[in-house]
Amino acid sequence: MQRVFIIGGGLAGSEAALQLAERGIKVSLYEQRPVYKTPVHKTGNFAELVCSNSLKSTEDTNAHGLLKKELSILGSILLDIAEKNRISYGKSLVVDREGFSRDITLNINMHPMIDVIRERIDDIPRDVPLLISSGPLTDGKLAQNIKELVGSDFLHFYDAISPIVDADSLNMDILYFKDRHNIDNDAYLNAPMTEKEYERFYKFIVNAESFKGHEFDKVPYFEGCLPIEEMAKRGYLTLVYGPLSPKGLEHPETGKRPFAVVQLRAENKEKTMYSLVGFQTRLKRKEQEKLIRLIPGLSDAKILRYGQIHRNTFINAPSVLTRFLNLKKHPNIFFAGQLSGTEGYVEAIMGGLISAINIYRLLKGKDLIPVPENTMSGALLSYISNSNLKSFQPMNANMGLLSNIPKGIKGMKRRIYKKERAIKEITEWKNRVL
Q1: I need a surface site. Which of 100, 247, 273, 415 has the fewest CB within 10 A?
Q2: For residue 242, how far is the Cα from the chain centroid?
């Protein structure tokens, strides 16, 4: 019986394992947790979400919504599980993080074609079908062996994750529910700020003490996940036009628009926990407490999880990977997830799904057919395999990746054109490869 080895049980590894198993391929899935812990994971479950619990937009004229649409057409198993654990029905797919990873773990553990090995793997077998999806915290001997395997230096950057607070500790006389798009007004809690309150908040955050150390002296943050204190230092109104924007968040009783608004998003179906939207931070814990309690309605907030910094490791994909996610020098070895140079949850699921399809076709002696570049999936794969080697940085889904638009199509019509073209081409590709 044909067997595939997968290193890493995150979003990419979990999607790939289930896809291959459903196709009758035996899978050996290696996951070091909970035997060996990481600085950010809390459980030993597969596909644990350690940053936000939002899989972003569901609108198919939005980049992440379009990517989800493509993956749905291709039969993504993890997206189906995400929908079953959805806790918001607005424009974003927000999931109960514990239920989501628990259900994925159950599916993997119960599948007769998947053998789960709970141990750290350091040596990389080079003569078997292999997917490496060990994630952004890959380190130690495995990292060194990957570096030797790909023959190029590792790149790295740092993300930060947002704090979570206890719902029972929030002052609901001050906070109010509202969705800035008026789709699901129970999806977000809002903490309104006057200009005076914002000024006090701003002065504190730009002077607050952050974690520092030798390796953090020059932190190359991913632009899409900047710590809030880094954004604040770019200017007094940067936050007001960013994560604290009051646009569309007028108070439902007075109709008045606050000067700034801090949004909180439910972390579970029961809505007993809320994360601070856009509050990725590397502030010290005491500073986080003081900052959070400057927010109206959060003066007595009980912090359940503090924001923290973590390393994100990835390979210089354009120098070593093909559009099929396998190595140029070792076609039987594939990479997926953040390690491959994509950034984001749904992007990781995409990598797991596409690599599984390609591994399956490779095992069956079939040609590998590239995902069309006019699809969001194909555009991402093209980006990470064809970017400038010297300036390569991870990329997430965005409509700017889709080009070749006929002249005369402008505004929203451009997005609609891109969407319709992508859906058509991913469907045609599916009919060829599945």
Answers
A1: 247
A2: 19
What distance in Å separates the CA atoms of residue 381 and residue 347, rounded to the nearest whole number? 10
Residues 26 and 85 in one domain: yes
Count the residues in the chain.
434
Specify whether 142 is located in the same domain as 200.
Answer: no
Rounded to two decimals, the pTM is 0.85
The reply to whether 136 and 214 lie within a common domain is no
Query: For residue 77, what are the contacts with CB-CB under 8 A and spacing of at least 6?
Result: 15, 18, 19, 22, 107
For residue 145, how far is the Cα from the chain centroid? Answer: 25
Q: Is residue 165 domain-shared with residue 287, that is, in the same domain?
A: yes
Give the Cα separation of 301 and 192 in Å (integer).
16
Domain at 186, CATH number: 2.40.30
Classify residue 330: in a domain, yes or no: yes
Query: Once rounded to an integer, what is the mean pLDDT over residues 122-148?
Result: 93
Question: Given pLDDT bands bounded at 50, 70 and 90, which one contains residue 219?
Answer: low
Q: Do the beta carbons of residue 191 and residue 264 sit within 8 Å?
A: yes
pLDDT for residue 160 is more than 90: no
